[in-house]
Amino acid sequence: MTSNNPQTREWQTLSNDHHLAPFSDFKQLKEKGPRIITHAKGVYLWDSEGNQILDGMAGLWCVAIGYGRDELADAASKQMRELPYYNLFFQTAHPPVLELAKAIADIAPQGMNHVFFTGSGSEGNDTMLRMVRHYWAIKGQPNKKVIISRKNGYHGSTVAGASLGGMTYMHEQGDLPIPGIVHIAQPYWFTEGGDMTPEAFGIWAANQLEEKILEVGVDNVGAFIAEPIQGAGGVIIPPDSYWPRIKEILAKYDILFVADEVICGFGRTGEWFGSDFYDLKPDMMTIAKGLTSGYIPMGGLIVRDEVVAVLNEGGDFNHGFTYSGHPVAAAVALENIRIMRDEKIVERVKTETAPYLQKRLRELNDHPLVGEVRGVGLLGAIELVQDKATRKRYEGKGVGMICRQFCFDNGLIMRAVGDTMIIAPPLVITPAEIDELVTKARKCLDLTLSALQG
Ligand code: PXG
């Protein structure tokens, strides 16, 4: 990259000399040098070369209320001056964490009134695993340890999180999954549906849960965990038949249901939680990301009243983190939720921007590279294919990465998961900004097609 700013090179040198970046090929990054993002406002980022970029991914699915909201900075500053830290371990608490727990209970599905706080979504899922096993032990069924999850699901990057997730490339590094976690097929019709209709495939994929429960033995299964819509796996929206069938199966067997709401939670679908969107009635919900709009790290686990009633009888739950319910993070999360409520951001997604984005995105269906456009709320996916009718991919060309690079170079962040382009913009994106996003996306699809033909 030719540089307009000598500082860019200095920062890249610091990166090369001292930084190990997450989910990166260290050597390749050294050769190329990272793009340095210096500031942001609303839905836009700026890099150190002065390029303005529309952030179609809300950071990493998290910046719900957009960048640059002073109220969150003020909330953090005020809390830091008043009580920058205290823990919740030794029968103490502080006002921000208690007020936040109440604010979350107010927006969570009915009957989910308690929150265990963590520093991230991964820690939320680690907490889930330990809490599920503790719950069944209290109930006198300590064998109910196995958690059923899904291939290509994403549940974090700690040992438990990566094990719960179904990413084989993560499992390959370090003997994962840990024992007691098994995976079933995902409801990804576009690549795995074969000749089945989406509806028939949805039923087939849901039935894998029942088969797995019977194979492992219901007396050994503690919980099933799933994202309402798989995010990192490629914005995989299950066929309409999927969740109703899963709910039937869950009703038949005595296991807990955990909805991982780290991406779907806090308005992404146009409801407060993906579980509201699909009426899932889970026993636990993992949260993070949109909880603080990413301004400060925080995650947690929202727990159903009946589960809490059992935990109440179990003595100490020997689990927690130094930063569980950190007061500064709690103050920021509270202010974030206040803004979302006062500005009716979730309602606006539902009634205005989600329908508009979904309509505009589907116009890309006429593009020769596009095999499918799908989306819910402010989540969208564009499948890039060689042949629309057969859903055949361009094998071995890395089309998604080519398209992603064109996007970056043309002022748009759109992620590539294989040959699936995905978007999840800040929830405050306006219709005019959606127009800009779709126009840039089409341009980048054109450039990708030309590159493939050229
Ligand atoms: N569950 C889900 C559904 C997630 O999307 C986590 C748990 C873990 O959260 P933490 O806060 O521990 O990162 C996530 C995180 C990607 C990508 O490539 C997605 C996530 C994280 C990193 C990369 O889209 N999601």
UniProtKB/TrEMBL annotation:
Write down the Pfam families for this protein, in alphabetical order.
Aminotran_3
Keywords assigned by UniProt, alphabetized: Aminotransferase, Pyridoxal phosphate, Transferase
- Gene3D superfamilies per record: Aspartate Aminotransferase, domain 1, Type I PLP-dependent aspartate aminotransferase-like (Major domain)
> Which cofactors must be present for this protein to function?
pyridoxal 5'-phosphate
Could you state a single Gene Ontology molecular function term? pyridoxal phosphate binding
What's the superkingdom here? Answer: Bacteria
Family in the record: Belongs to the class-III pyridoxal-phosphate-dependent aminotransferase family.
* Name of the protein this chain belongs to: Aspartate aminotransferase family protein
